[in-house]
Design brief:
Length: 257
């Protein structure tokens, strides 16, 4: 099971958008020509991988992606703790995490004007329509560099439809967990896999539509920053919500978010 959006928000909120070791901020402001850059990683204290750092076969599998097994670090210190796992044991990382979150709480308590961390939606940033996605690369353009996702579908009518949509959405969520650290070859393979999954869905009479919404992460210590949400909807070919734009090759879905 991948890390849930709720778990991510709790981890980032309690960590104050800062590395638990060096205390550096983990979102770099946008430039006039580029979006913000996220340099933080949600790091596993006990690895899921058998050969991974601090792997413990006795640790409950259902808790591997839980908040208790995660620590927020910059990418330099993420690599350090994984390369030096004999030094940075699970107990030490748990203590470092606890100390850091206590430090964040104290800093916020010392600043009465600080506001709670929250996500705020902006009406003009909510897409009125979602564009049909025909290829894996088009899906990647929606989900890459997004901090969270909104996934939905119409009422399903068969087990075959259920399995097809589960596989598609799971592939999307798994990429969201590792996308920033993935190799170019992984991206190429994923685009191909997503194209095949789109074809499978279309064969069942289901189409995929997507878009992006920019919400605002505000409160805490820093200035408000943009928080990108990827939106994916699966609809039937005969859905009345689907509209044709310009020509028969371009279609959109009226979004209900």
């Amino acid at each position: 099971m991948p890390i849930s959006d709720k778990t991510r928000k709790i981890l980032w909120g309690r960590s104050g958008n800062r590395c638990a070791i060096c205390k550096h901020e983990l979102i770099i402001d946008a430039t006039p020509t580029d979006d913000e850059s996220v340099i933080g990683d949600e790091c596993h204290i006990i690895s899921r991988q058998i050969q991974g750092p601090r792997h413990n076969p006795a640790f409950p599998e259902g808790k591997l992606d839980a908040y208790e097994n995660l620590i927020l670090l910059c990418r330099v210190h993420h690599k350090m703790i994984d390369d030096q796992d004999e030094t940075y044991t699970a107990d030490i990382l748990q203590q470092m995490k606890s100390n850091h979150e206590t430090w964040v709480s104290q800093k916020l308590s010392d600043t009465p004007q600080s506001k709670p961390i929250r996500l705020r939606r902006i009406k003009q940033n909510i897409p009125a329509i979602l564009i049909r996605l025909r290829t894996g690369l088009e899906v990647l353009s929606i989900i890459e560099n997004a901090y969270a996702s909104s996934l939905d579908h119409e009422e399903l009518k068969s087990e075959e439809e259920v399995e097809a949509i589960v596989q598609f959405f799971q592939t999307v969520r798994d990429w969201g967990d590792v996308g920033m650290d993935a190799k170019p070859s992984d991206r190429i393979r994923l685009a191909y896999e997503l194209s095949n999954l789109l074809n499978d869905l279309e064969g069942l009479g289901l189409l995929v539509f997507g878009g992006r919404e920019i919400q605002v992460l505000e409160g805490g210590l820093g200035e408000p920053t943009n928080w990108t949400i990827s939106i994916l909807r699966v609809a039937r070919k005969d859905s009345q919500a689907i509209k044709t734009i310009d020509d028969e090759e371009t279609a959109s879905l009226e979004d209900a978010v």
